[in-house]
Design brief:
about 220 residues; alpha+beta; Dna Ligase, domain 1; Glycoprotein, Type 4 Pilin; four-stranded antiparallel beta sheet; about 35% helix
Length: about 220
């Protein structure tokens, strides 16, 4: 699986995340096509748009062209009305084909995937701390502030430490999704298997909304 990294607006590096999580983050608005990304094999960081083919992203919609100069006001109004009717017809077709519940589920899946991707952005820092310090980082350690300091576009807070029961190091992230009951306040758990240098994902969220690696 490809491991991608992306830069936040404040210049912080996040990752690694999978290509699927990166596309979900784009769909949810957490990043844009201008966001700088990198993966092993690339000579340098580049805009996400430059890797559209590698990620299987659809091409951006063409910019709307300006109406021909010199049209009278009545003609412009008529064109606007026709355009509005076309949009309504298209939206009506989409609604008939997919239905409101299907669209709602799509939005929830995109938000959940973006939240997982955002939480996964802390994995590299946790693994590096364990390798350097020989212990699991906790909130308050350098680079690991209070839980609320790690809030982002899709997370309310992140807590670091060892999990009771398994004893594994990792993090617990709380999803921020106001008005979306299936997600808001739900927890994501990322546990680090230090021996195998691997991560396991689980969550309170219903499996149908989660990325495949977090289900079960």
């Amino acid at each position: 699986m490809d491991h991608w990294y992306y830069a936040t607006a404040d210049g912080q590096r996040r990752g690694p995340v999978s290509a699927t999580d990166l596309k979900a983050l784009l769909a949810a608005g957490g990043i844009t096509r201008q966001t700088l990304v990198w993966r092993e094999g690339l000579p340098h960081w580049c805009p996400l748009a430059a890797q559209a083919a590698a990620l299987g992203l659809p091409p951006p919609l063409p910019a709307a062209s300006a109406p021909p100069a010199g049209l009278p006001r009545a003609a412009l109004i008529a064109l606007a009305v026709v355009a509005g009717l076309v949009v309504l017809a298209v939206l009506g077709g989409v609604g008939a084909a997919f239905g409101i519940p299907a669209y709602r589920d799509h939005r929830l899946r995109a938000h959940a995937a973006a939240a997982v991707a955002e939480a996964s952005g802390h994995q590299a820092a946790v693994a590096a701390f364990v390798g350097a310090q020989g212990r699991c980082p906790e909130n308050g350690d350098p680079g690991f502030g209070a839980p609320e300091e790690h809030a982002g576009g899709h997370l309310a807070r992140v807590r670091f430490g060892r999990f009771p029961g398994t004893g594994r190091c990792g993090l617990q992230a709380v999803i921020a999704a106001p008005g979306q009951a299936p997600l808001d306040g739900m927890r994501i758990w990322l546990e680090y298997d230090e021996a195998g240098a691997a991560w396991e994902c689980s969550s309170q969220v219903d499996d149908r909304y989660l990325p495949p690696r977090c289900r079960g």
